[in-house]
Amino acid sequence: MKNPMLEAVSLVLEKLLFISYFKFFSSGAPGEDKAGNTLYEISSFLRGDVLEVPRTHLTHYGIYLGDNRVAHMMPDILLALTDDKGLTQKVVSNKRLILGVIGRVASIRVDTVEDFAYGAEILVNHLDRSLKKKALLNEEVAQRAEKLLGITPYSLLWNNCEHFVTYCRFGTAISPQADKFCENVKIIIRDQRSVLASAVLGLASIFCLGLTSYTTLPAIFIPFFLWMAG
């Protein structure tokens, strides 16, 4: 049986992480002209390499399959609306991506290096050094990625592009980015100033909106739960 409290906490964390994604989305989107102005040394990439695109707050990951093809997980709301591959195989736009995150639908798809990176710098196999894990053989990495191609559920915390890549590369699906985000949330919760801030906001909402159940209950329970969690 699922724990309602854990599900609620997970939902809140995902929404907070989603909010932090907005700046990532706005800093560059697939299909923009920027992608066509950047040249990549594709000949230096090996089949099975992990390609990483650092952005302002987050990093997008993919597996290089050779021949200018990259397998990567992309949220896409269009997958829930149509089976027309002619439409879904087009480069995912910003709106499709954001709505895909909200709808928790994605696909592990193949795009060109240019469409994958959309003009950003590409790092190669940086995860090997940052995680200090032994990678599988490159051919096995690529084959794992190819076997997973297709529609998949999406979750910012539990099943994102980093989970996909680390499973293919190391055999274990992990996401240091999501883990770091959760640790930062824990730090905020443990800071007693969060209790005071939530109490002040609660009182302000009561003052502005009146003494009602939808203002009073959050004003009481949110500071209480933060205090208990801290």
From TrEMBL:
InterPro entries reported for this sequence: LRAT (IPR042288), LRAT_dom (IPR007053)
Pfam family, one: LRAT
Subcellular location: Cytoplasm, Perinuclear region; Endoplasmic reticulum membrane; Endosome, Multivesicular body; Rough endoplasmic reticulum
PROSITE patterns reported in the protein's UniProt record: LRAT
Enzyme Commission number(s) from the entry: 2.3.1.135
Active-site positions on this chain: C161 (acyl-thioester intermediate)
GO biological process, any: positive regulation of lipid transport
Membrane topology: Single-pass membrane protein
Pathway the protein acts in: Cofactor metabolism; retinol metabolism
Keywords: Acyltransferase, Cytoplasm, Endoplasmic reticulum, Endosome, Lipid metabolism, Membrane, Sensory transduction, Transferase, Transmembrane, Transmembrane helix, Vision
Chief location category: cytoplasm
The keyword Lipid metabolism appears for this protein: yes
GO cellular component terms, A-Z: endoplasmic reticulum membrane; multivesicular body; perinuclear region of cytoplasm; rough endoplasmic reticulum
Domain LRAT residue range list: 50-177
Function: Transfers the acyl group from the sn-1 position of phosphatidylcholine to all-trans retinol, producing all-trans retinyl esters. Retinyl esters are storage forms of vitamin A. LRAT plays a critical role in vision. It provides the all-trans retinyl ester substrates for the isomerohydrolase which processes the esters into 11-cis-retinol in the retinal pigment epithelium; due to a membrane-associated alcohol dehydrogenase, 11 cis-retinol is oxidized and converted into 11-cis-retinaldehyde which is the chromophore for rhodopsin and the cone photopigments.
Family of the protein in this entry: Belongs to the H-rev107 family.
Name of the protein described by the UniProt record: Lecithin retinol acyltransferase
Organism of provenance: Bos indicus x Bos taurus (Hybrid cattle)
Biological classification of the source: Eukaryota, Metazoa, Chordata, Craniata, Vertebrata
